[in-house]
Backbone:
């Protein structure tokens, strides 16, 4: 197995989410009150936001490979420890540690792939497509673990992170231009590079708007599907089709990478209006699948363009900055839509989301060079 194959496979395995469908049920089974479970998830989100950029700087200072290996093995440990029956404070500490470990891998995987790839566009799109498929597979399997033992979703997640770390350990050392000098001053290099490169800044803003919306959208499946009056047993099936639509969008990007970004973004926002037609479930579902398709294509296209625009050796830091912006957008959507869900129709929420993305994204989109 070649080194680049090991690196690709490690990223794909690390995209597994066996735990996602069962995490609330698992902690309820551990007799932790629901409000405290959501408090732990909120603490995780805040910590991930705070750790995002600093851990990217760490990756650039020591190398993305070292950052990934440490992150994967820490997550392996925390997932296995979470299967034990422990006091609440231990679980909270695991969530904080896990947030730091996850952010050590965020951005570092793409930076590492870029450093060894001879055809980054192909390799990046390939990894993204198979990662999405892994997410679908692991979510379905994770849901099935409810039938016999909730701890298995954590065991499977920990095992995948362990394999990811082992694969990177087996990969041969490679050259990577590290940040030199003081690590704290090195943290400014990525920010200075983005400030000086407006094309890169606009790409980061547009990419974070798209990714941030979908990061928060998963919390609103319940009101969406409930408004469409869909049977609860079918929800997972429709979500899986949506993610597979994203994978298909990535696949098409590999073959047709020259589609106009501005036109695709307008079509993407147009699909929001279809999603809002919840009184017509078929139209709303088609709109959701279309939105997911454009998400896959646009995230792949923008990801390649962002990496091409980065000339600094602070690649992991800049990619972590993208993740940081994505989390901010996701937090805004989650808070605002969460408050409005019980007060306005889902149709109005989708229209409002489209208008917000259009208003915030118009300036960088108009200033962006044609891609």
Residues:
């Amino acid at each position: 197995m070649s080194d680049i194959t090991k690196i690709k496979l490690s990223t794909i395995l690390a995209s597994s989410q066996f735990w996602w469908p069962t995490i609330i049920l698992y902690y309820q089974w551990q007799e932790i009150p629901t409000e405290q479970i959501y408090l732990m998830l909120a603490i995780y989100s805040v910590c991930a936001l705070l750790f995002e950029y600093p851990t990217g700087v760490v990756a650039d200072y020591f190398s993305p490979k070292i950052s990934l290996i440490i992150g994967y093995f820490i997550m392996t440990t925390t997932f296995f420890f979470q299967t034990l029956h422990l006091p609440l404070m231990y679980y909270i500490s695991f969530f904080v540690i896990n947030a730091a470990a996850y952010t050590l891998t965020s951005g570092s995987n793409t930076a590492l792939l870029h450093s060894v790839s001879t055809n980054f566009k192909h390799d990046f799109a390939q990894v993204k497509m198979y990662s999405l498929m892994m997410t679908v597979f692991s979510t379905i399997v994770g849901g099935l673990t409810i039938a016999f033992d909730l701890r298995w979703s954590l065991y499977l997640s920990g095992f995948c992170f362990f394999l990811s770390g082992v694969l990177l350990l087996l990969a041969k050392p490679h050259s990577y231009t590290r940040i030199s000098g003081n690590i704290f001053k090195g943290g400014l290099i990525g920010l200075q590079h983005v400030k000086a490169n407006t094309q890169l800044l606009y790409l980061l803003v547009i990419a974070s708007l798209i990714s941030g919306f979908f990061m928060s959208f998963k919390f609103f499946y319940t009101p969406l599907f409930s408004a469409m009056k869909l049977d609860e047993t079918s929800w997972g099936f429709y979500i899986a089709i949506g993610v597979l639509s994203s994978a298909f969008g990535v696949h098409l990007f590999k073959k047709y990478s020259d589609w106009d970004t501005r036109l695709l973004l307008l079509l993407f926002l147009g699909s929001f209006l279809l999603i809002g037609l919840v009184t017509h479930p078929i139209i709303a579902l088609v709109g959701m699948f279309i939105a997911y398709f454009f998400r896959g294509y646009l995230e792949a296209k923008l990801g390649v363009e962002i990496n091409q625009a980065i000339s600094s050796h602070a690649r992991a830091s800049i990619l972590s900055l993208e993740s940081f912006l994505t989390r901010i957008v996701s937090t805004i959507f989650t808070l605002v839509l969460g408050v409005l869900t019980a007060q306005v129709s889902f149709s109005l929420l989708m229209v409002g989301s489209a208008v917000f993305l259009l208003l915030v994204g118009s300036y960088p989109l108009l200033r962006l060079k044609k891609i």
Q: What stands out?
A: The chain has a mean pLDDT of 89.
